[in-house]
Amino acid sequence: MGSNQENGKIFDAVIIGAGFSELYMLYRLRESGYSVRVYEAAEDVGGTWYWNRYPGASCDIESIYYNYTFSKEILNEWTWSSRYVEEPKI
Length: 90
Known about the structure:
Layout: E1 5-6, E2 9-10, E3 13-16, H1 20-31, E4 36-39, H2 48-51, H3 72-77
Parallel strand pairs: 3-4
Antiparallel strand pairs: 1-2
């Protein structure tokens, strides 16, 4: 418990959760050359948006702010379908 090892491999960093911020941290650490492991209780990524899936849930800020602007590749491949996108798109 609390170990940074898995199957004998030692990681430089461990990230708890796979939400928006945690995925950014994963990107930054890997870009800096660190070995990283993410642990998430859910079956998929999404953080708050994974756990709060209900009819009518939508973003309370403009969807454009949910872009990963640190990656031109991701930024250029994504187009939001509405100004305040609904939860399934996030």
